[in-house]
Amino acid sequence: MSAIPQQILARQKSALNTLVAAQTAMFTGFEKLVDLNLKVVKATLDEVAQKSQQAVDLKDPQDAAAFSTGLVQPSAEKALAYGKHVYDILNSVQSDLAKLAEAQIAEGQEHINEAVEQLSRNAPNGSESAVALIKSSLATANSAYESLTKAAKQAADVAESNLNAATNATFKAASDAAEVASKAAGRARRA
After folding, report:
1. 89 and 32 in contact (C-beta within 8 Å)?
2. pTM for the whole thing?
3. Are 131 and 98 within 8 A, CB to CB?
């Protein structure tokens, strides 16, 4: 068998393996999201049952005010935690897909470099400058791709850092608001 059909078969096999890996990464992420949501629903149902029992046991309006104030902070914390878990899952899937894409691009670059090398070996005399121009263009394109990839990774890191800072600030604000409400309910009870 000739080398060209073998190369084609190898590339098709590689593409199929990459497709399967991408589908696996996405399905794993979906599976994690479903698992997270099932856990959240179960925990929510358990908490609703517990809080309902506590609400039934309330005796006066001041206790009801304190009880309702106490519901705010845990809910905010849970919402933030849920958002963080979803973000982590999606970030993991995106990272896996990016690694697969990088591997595919690297493999494509390798195939192009091999083709250029084969072209340069089989090029007629006098075409050395054209082959050198092609090689130079490929080197420039690879360098530009690496620079863009590095810049994109840095931008993603900055975005993640900003998201974490915003999440922490929101959590602090929710905690502070719940603390203020709790103190106000305490004062109302004493009055």
Report:
1. yes
2. 0.68
3. no
